[in-house]
Specification:
about 35% helix, alpha/beta, Rossmann fold
């Protein structure tokens, strides 16, 4: 049996569809989960969201033991969480850092990711539907290993 792909979402992503739709669009997090599952139906997906840093770290630890790959949208923790970065350093499989918006076109505070140096790949600016692209890319990365 193949190990699952973990899709982890950080703070405020539970508000997708209602939060700043001019930046994040109208797609809800439940719809994002459906897009992820539909993109790679042959793979088990473990999908989580939390506004709490420690929960994301616990799920990364779980993925270290049980997961094949991690797609993570750390949201605001991207720029502040050394603890999430350190947890991801322990993961031996591929990691895709994903952002709905193009963080490089936004305010300077969004330009310095603590996660990018430990990620296998970084995807940004594809909108919420880009999660499906990230899952397909993860599936392809896993098939190469």
């Amino acid at each position: 049996m193949k190990k699952p792909i973990y899709v982890l979402n950080g703070p405020n992503l539970n508000r997708l569809g209602r939060r700043q739709p001019e930046i994040y669009g109208h797609t809800t997090l439940a719809e994002v989960e459906g897009l992820c599952r539909a993109a790679v139906p042959e793979r088990e997906i473990v999908f989580h969201q939390s506004n709490r840093e420690y929960e994301l770290i616990e799920w990364i630890h779980e993925a270290i033991d049980e997961g094949a790959g991690i797609v993570i949208n750390p949201a605001g923790f991207t720029f502040t969480s050394v603890a999430i970065m350190d947890a991801l350093k322990m993961f031996e499989g591929p990691i895709i850092e994903f952002h709905i918006s193009n963080v490089h076109k936004r305010e300077a505070i969004y330009h310095k990711s603590l996660i990018s140096p430990v990620a296998t790949a970084v995807m940004a600016g594809l909108g919420a539907r880009g999660y499906a692209t990230a899952l397909i890319a993860m599936r392809d990365l896993l098939s190469q290993s």
